[in-house]
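I am writing to request your help with a piece of structural work I have in hand. Thank you for your consideration; the sequence and its tokens are set out here:
=====
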Amino acid sequence: MFKSIKSILKEGTIGQEITLKGWVRTFRSNRFIAINDGSTIENIQAVVNFENFNEIFLKRITTGAAIEVTGSIVESQGKGQAVEILVKEMQILGDSDPEIYPIQPKKHSLEFLREHAHLRIRTNTFGAVMRVRSTLAYAIHKYFQDNGFFYVNTPIITGSDAEGAGEMFRVTTLDAKNPPLTQEGNIDYKKDFFGKETNLTVSGQLEGETFAMALGKIYTFGPTFRAENSNTSRHLAEFWMIEPEVAFLDLVGNMDLAEDFIKYVLKYTLETCREDIEFLEKRLQEEEKTKPQNERSEFSLIEKLEFVIHNNFKRVSYTEAIDILKNSKPNRNKKFSYLIDEWGADLQSEHERYLVEKHFKSPVILYDYPAKIKAFYMRLNEDGKTVRAMDILFPGIGEIVGGSQREERYDVLVEKIKAMGIDQKELWWYLDLRKFGTAVHSGFGLGFERLVLFTTGMTNIRDVIPYPRTPQNAEF
């Protein structure tokens, strides 16, 4: 069995003969091949005696070519690595024409690499990002499994809109040019595949609640979709969501759970992917040098992660946050794009980041939002105008978590559904939870890509998902 480069660098002993397979990063002086197999950020150097191989064969050792080498592990004579491979045998498994292979050993822009998303994973940056992404995903499952949560797969195709925003992708098999019509001239969805109007899910929360009210503690981790025409560095049309739901948990317990969860997955990933994160930190430092001094981050990437891991999140009511923002210098000097004039305003990313990065200088949990700007399922407070909602705000990201204590009272929930113009018949099953054994319960949603964005220091969400889906773009 051939060995991974990661295991060779970690466990390999001098004199041991091994076989490894990987892709050529560089080939210098007809002698030194830098090979990477994706298992680590580190390359391993294979040293070739060019007299043992003919010239035509050596010319095929180009960047991107897949090769297999067999040889002995020896102490490295050069700088930058402790060991290298003294090659005895070598095969080229797959050629790579240097005239047309786009990922050459030079600096490429992120925009260029997005156009070659099927190959960008071979760069150091994207290899590191995707290994971190994989580790974060494992840490998420580990946290919940170790804490007695059950993993639930909620539907991707749904007839309900959990957010009430209406920005959903329709799922249909009807003929777009000649759909069946009702007598009133509307599209007759009774003749569609599911016999009703269906969409791609925006959240697994509502279905997740049904399982929490039987199993106690559950979580979902799957793809979600928003047909929001947002061409920004923070939005995707297809992204992954982590959504725990817990029976008998109130808003305070929900905040405790979210904070503990985030700290755990960041700590686990920092310890497991230290080399990748150190590489991404250096990359970010180079990027920061191109910015004006006042726009540079006060923390390095690892300092930022450790700050979140080791400090308590500041908990602030929406009302207190509005007062802070109203009296802030950027608001008074009309520097905010969206000025804060009165209580009830829906906070924008610029406001969230001001609270985190300028005012509190720590992660912030905002709670008790105005009912009018939040979803129908959030529990109404006794004041009749706020709900038991909470958002977690992070530096550089803004909102990373949104959650709430769910409305467990049948009559109140029915009134909220009516007030928001939602078809009560579509949610008969959801209302049943409030008829049969209702209880306080809570949950939250965390956008996985935003967590990866924060952990890697990347600045565009399109660079932390393998194949981004955005308006006018469904390539690959």
